[in-house]
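Issue 218. Parser rejects a valid record. Input:
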Amino acid sequence: MGTLLPPGPKLPTAVQTLIWIRRPIEFMRFCRARYGDTYAMRIAGTGTVVLLSDPESIKRVFTGDPSDLCAGEVNAVLEPIVGQNSVLLLDGARHLRHRRLLLPPFHGERMRLYAAQMQEATQRSLERWPRGEPFSLRPHTQDITLDVILRTVFGVDQRDEVGELRLRLERLLSIADSPLSVLAMIPSLRRDLPLTPWRRFVRDREAADREIFAVIARRRRAGTGGRDDVLGMLLEAVDVDGERLSDVELRDELMTLLVAGHETTATALCWAFERLLGTPRVLERLQREIDDVTGGRLEPEHLGRMPYLDATIAEVLRVRPVIPMVGRRLHAPLTLERYQIPTGWVVSPSIYLTHMNPAVYDDPEELRPERFLEKRPDPYAWLPFGGGIRRCLGAAFAHYEMKVVMATILSRTELELAQRPPVPTVRRAITFSPREGTLVRARPRG
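Output the parser choked on:
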């Protein structure tokens, strides 16, 4: 029976918070080296957070009673953008209701329906890439992932609808993605005052909401016959009591899918090419697989015959996780190893520290996709999509989108890194991104 509190830095909360915002990776690595796989830090607006990087402790958290381990409360920092009805913010029966309604559109078998749209979005982006001069990949991967979401999730395919909705969402996402947006995670700093980022965010959110509600209204009037996008399925989804999602609930879940699937996948793609271009052995093997399978012309049916691409994506998400950790707020004390963690504290499986734990992965810094050719990822040691009943609903979608985008780019374009690897990591809101968005040079393949 544990009786000790986890160790951790004694710095004032404000100082720990500032270090966490400015230098999160260095802070995590320092604390793990000094205090071990389980340690506590204090973050303004959140309280005491216990970070975990031991798979056995993580298993306890992911398989524990969800009424005692509440993720929705921890995710409440996202409420300004995703809304109060987001599956990310709900706990208990409401969370299960929304999760069940949201799950069918993201079943693995449905991914093939979206392949053509993902490939077309990538090809349109490639036509706009500079040739021969350095450029940042990040704006282009953001364009691809937003294009994919607008068409596969929102079901927007008319030029006028795409243009106005895209404009509003891009403005909103640009604010949410700003480094200053980290401050909005602290509720006391949300001030609706003239010229403040918060006021601009609120105004742009209202404008985006008007467009989203207009899309929902048009789709309700037109019906969903013959449509296979996510919004169409959600409009038809019925819970166990025969109830459908309201317009407000639909808005919140659409924003959730946008936030969860846009910047995260765009950033993961940037990291994928940064790691590949810095590891020629892996890139050459992956290029050979793509060429051998496709014969120079990629078709959706080829994607199921690329095991090394699957393994490469899994390994990229291990060495460069986009989200650093997930959390659960305790509604009952929790014993982990020799520690007794009090009610009200947050326990947080650290995705980054677990993936970099040498007791879990040999040579953890090395990009070695062969790890995932030999065996399937351990659900308590490979955590890019979280775990347990809170595991990301769009995990299969994100993986499949990365496959389509990477295979399309590598089958048509030669890339070289235009900055020295390894590229430093910077925080952008809730994501860990490559500095400058991965600078590359591109030229068409011969």
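Fixed in the parser; the record now loads. Residues 45 and 115 are 41 Å apart (CA to CA).
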